[in-house]
Amino acid sequence: MLVAERYEKIVQVVNERGSIRVSELSELCQVTEETIRRDLDRLEQDGRLRRSHGGAVSIKENQTSEIPFLERETMFSEEKKRIAREAIQLIQPHDRIILDASTTAWYMASLLPDIPLTVLTNSIKVAMELAGKEKVKVISTGGQLAKRSLSYVGPLAERSLDHYHVDKLFLSCKGVHATRGISESDELQAGVKQKMIELADQVILIADASKIGVRAFTQVGVLSDVDVLITDDRVTDDLREQIEEIGISVKIV
């Protein structure tokens, strides 16, 4: 592999995963760790990534800030709809559930039958989608409005969650990694999702395959917090097996 080709491969992998360690890049590129460190120094000087302790992190904007909801609607929409349909099968009448502010949760809200349920959400879009379903009781967290995601975040949203306990949480995120766990691009979103995990009996992670193997900006929780992962058939066998080894049930749609 030529040096220029190795540079491109390193930048591509860092952008895809959000962050990566020197040891992983060394194995991936089949060169010494010292060579990788020199490569990372050069790439940082060129403004293509940022060095971190033991590795590198992406400087792409969408790794450290939220993607607007209207843009996320069009990203892997068919896969997200399949995941939403599968997730709905886990809901029983009279369940108390949380739907987060993800587009997959919004698809769930739109496809959800009008059955007796209590739905707690921090998403304006989810709440509006459920407003026309007479048997579904909707509770909104309130809080600081995150305009890009049309969701409520911050201390008020987190405190409002303290009043509740739910049967099931349907949670998405920016990254799902075997060692890094669940991660998000935004600290305020991560804080709300951490609180959601604490108050749920069962955590169902609804994440399309583009998020599997990714380590985003800020950690939400460890994968042992998760009971079920629903993802699509683009996920690799290696990544699926890594997650199943932790004891998580993985459903592929």
Q: Mean pLDDT across all residues, rounded? A: 90
Distance between the termini: 36 Å
Q: Return residue spans where pLDDT drops below 50 for at least 5 consecutive residues.
A: none
Q: Reading side by side through the largest sheet, how are the strands ordered?
A: 6-5-4-9-12-14-15
In helices, the fraction of residues equals: 25-40%
Mind telling me the C-alpha Rg?
Answer: 19 Å
Count of individual helical segments: 11
Quaternary structure classification = single chain
> Helices and strands: which structural class?
alpha/beta
Total count of strands: 15
The global form is elongated
Major sheet characteristics: 7 strands, parallel
Share of β-strand residues: 15-25%
Element-level helix/strand string: HEHHEEHHHEHEHEEEHEEEHEEEHE
Task: Write a concise keyword list for the protein shown above.
253 residues, 7-stranded parallel beta sheet, 3-stranded antiparallel beta sheet, 11 helices, elongated
Structural account:
The chain has 253 residues and is an alpha/beta fold. The strands form four sheets. The chain has a seven-stranded parallel beta sheet, sandwiched between helices. It has a three-stranded antiparallel beta sheet with strand order 1-3-2. It has a three-stranded antiparallel beta sheet with strand order 10-11-13. The model has no long low-confidence stretch (mean pLDDT 90). The chain has eleven helices and 15 strands. Helices cover 40% and strands 24% of the residues. The chain is elongated and about 60 Å long.
